[in-house]
Design brief:
By secondary structure, this protein is an alpha/beta fold. The chain has ten helices and twelve strands.
Length: 294
């Protein structure tokens, strides 16, 4: 009979592609992990890993077993959560992911509320990009994530929380007054500073410019990418006079403290993003997660 331990070790091996790193991630010795993988192969009667010097590759059948094993591990975690959290709202361990363009601006607002109202909640946070958060929700590494909607992923539920409008951040020396409303056609897209590839905010900014200008914006060198992974870094580039950027309202409320930058509203219809909470449709913590409708 295969065990959850063997499936956990196989999942780690699939992620890391190396016995040593997988063993470290599972907090066991490499021989112990290797022995469990061999026991799994003997029980199933198939070879799940191809062992090479310095690396490990999963066989075709091994990849499918690892994929199905992740589903079993997720269901197992959900079962434990279901039993543990029947007694009360927002108790015990809750793993929450947040996108980088949201975490430093929203978390300072909500963490004190959670700590005060739910002292028995053990919140664990992870800040990373949308694609990784979605993968972590699917494999059970995260209970939920706060990110931009719509996600439109099978087996993942969404709860809309609030709308976050975009503003145009410009250097303080820009001649336009703070009360000026800017049309997207007025933005010099050759000076539009964007986050590095992979950030949903970058894609949203490009999509808005392309739509508003009927496809004239997204190509031809539009946008300057500095490899920045945070909005604060982008704002520093704007403050230094290197260009302009679209910034969410929730971030602008914090970044206004830098008097080298000013923020201009965009003309109607104002662009923005919908922020929401996403989680597995089968999650036993739905009652906890629906609490955030405040």
């Amino acid at each position: 009979m295969i065990t959850l331990r063997q499936l956990r070790y196989l999942a780690a091996l699939a992620r890391h592609g190396h016995f040593g790193r997988a063993a470290e991630a599972c907090a066991v010795t490499q021989p112990a992990l290797s022995m469990q993988i061999r026991d799994l192969e003997r029980t199933l009667g198939v070879t799940v890993v191809e062992r090479r010097p310095g690396e490990v590759l999963l066989t075709d059948v091994g990849r499918e077993i690892a994929r199905r094993g992740e589903e079993v591990l997720t269901a197992s975690r959900d079962l434990v959560d279901f039993a543990r959290h029947r007694s009360g709202l927002l108790q015990g361990r809750l793993t929450l992911g947040v996108i980088p363009s949201l975490a430093p601006y929203l978390l300072p607002r909500i963490l004190p509320v959670l700590q005060t109202r739910f002292p028995d909640l053990q919140l664990e946070l992870r800040e990373t990009q949308t694609r990784q958060l979605v993968d972590d929700i699917k494999n059970g590494a995260l209970d939920a994530a706060m990110l931009a909607l719509p996600l439109l992923e099978a087996d993942i539920d969404e709860i809309a929380l609030f709308e976050d409008l975009f503003l145009l951040a410009v250097p303080a020396a820009d001649p336009r007054a703070a009360t000026t409303r800017v049309a997207v056609e007025e933005i010099d897209q050759g000076k539009l500073i964007l986050l590095e590839d992979g950030h949903c905010l970058r894609d949203q900014a490009l999509a808005f410019c392309a739509t508003a200008t009927r496809g004239r914006a997204a190509g031809g060198g539009a946008g300057t990418v500095f490899g920045a992974s945070s909005l604060n870094t982008v704002i520093q580039m704007v403050a230094g006079g290197y260009g302009v950027t679209l910034i969410p309202q929730i971030a602008a409320d914090v970044e206004r403290r830098d008097d080298r930058v000013k923020f201009l509203r965009l003309k109607t219809p104002e662009p923005g993003r919908s922020i929401g909470l996403v989680f597995r449709r089968t999650s036993p913590r739905k009652a906890d997660l629906h609490w955030v409708r405040w």
